[in-house]
Amino acid sequence: MKLIVIVLFLFLSHGVLGQEVNNSLKRDKTNIYYDAAWRYFTFEKEVTKKTTTVLFEESYFTQFIPNKIENLTIVAINPYDRRFLKKIRKDKKVEVLKISPLKVTPTGQFKVSIVYFDVINPNRRNIEFKNKGGVDVIYSYDNSSKKFLFKGIQ
Questions:
Q1: Is the pTM of this model over 0.85?
Q2: In terms of domain of life, where is this protein from (predicted)?
Q3: What's the DSSP call for residue 63?
């Protein structure tokens, strides 16, 4: 049953959840990193059930993700910043998402990977990133319309 729901989501999401994605530099809904994060949160409902604030590891790409997506507040953090280390010491474990650069697959499609980590501070000197998995948000590029087309989530 779960497989059927996922397959239906992937087939229907292109038309129902479609939005224009045509760049990687603007900080709005047309940005591929914004779209990948939005589709991840739509697909991965467990994330949105647990929290209203999502932490992304600060990188060049997080600057293109707006501070809000739907009901979620997006916060870019530096895991080596003193304030973040204090939060880890207090909370013992913090979940952080990392978004990767746009990559071209061998089949000519494009993907944005989103990986999630538990960040822990076991001995006050070091922090550890424990990889909990991730997803690839897959796109193709339509040269005639100059847009990225969402293909699915793997």
A1: no
A2: Bacteria
A3: G
